[in-house]
Amino acid sequence: MRRRVLVVDDDRLVADTLKMIFTANGFESEACYSAAEALKRARSFSPALVLCDVTMPDENGLQLADAVLREMPSCQLLMLTAYSSNAAQVELHSLRTNRPLKLLSKPCRPEVLLEEVNALLGMDGTGSQAMLSTAGGA
Fold it and tell me: I need a surface site. Which of 54, 81, 84, 133 has the fewest CB within 10 A?
């Protein structure tokens, strides 16, 4: 069974590259470029995990996390940021919601990202989904 990952980042190049990495490693993946688009897509795609940038225009990643948790409580969340100053916001959000949120820094090496996703999804890393392929060096 393939696992579904929804990638959300307002930087299209980042979102599309991450989608390619997941697809090349046996995941079903979709990319969205805003929180509003992502919530709409999540309702029909039913992801096992949402990988989301923290800093985005309009609604940010933490607002999206709240909406996803309300509507899909079993969905796992993994946050990405290029700004170390976002770590405190993510920590406060985790405390407020009583649900830990893992935060990775951008740029993130694909093997580190896949390791974190596999851990969040309860995969042991021995199946094809845990193997790293960067789809031609992407």
Answer: 84
Domain boundaries, the chain: 4-130
- Rounded-to-integer distance, Cα 100 and Cα 32, Å: 23
Q: Which amino acid is at 64?
A: L
Whether 58 and 19 have beta carbons less than 8 Å apart is answered as no
**What is 4-130's CATH number?**
3.40.50.2300
What are the φ/ψ torsions at residue 79 (nearest 5 degrees)? -100, 150
Q: What is the residue-level pLDDT of the chain in tens, covering all 138 positions?
A: 469 999 999 999 999 999 999 999 999 999 999 999 999 999 999 999 999 999 999 889 999 999 999 999 999 999 998 888 888 888 888 888 888 888 898 888 999 999 999 999 987 554 443 444 444 443
132, 114 in Cβ contact below 8 A? yes
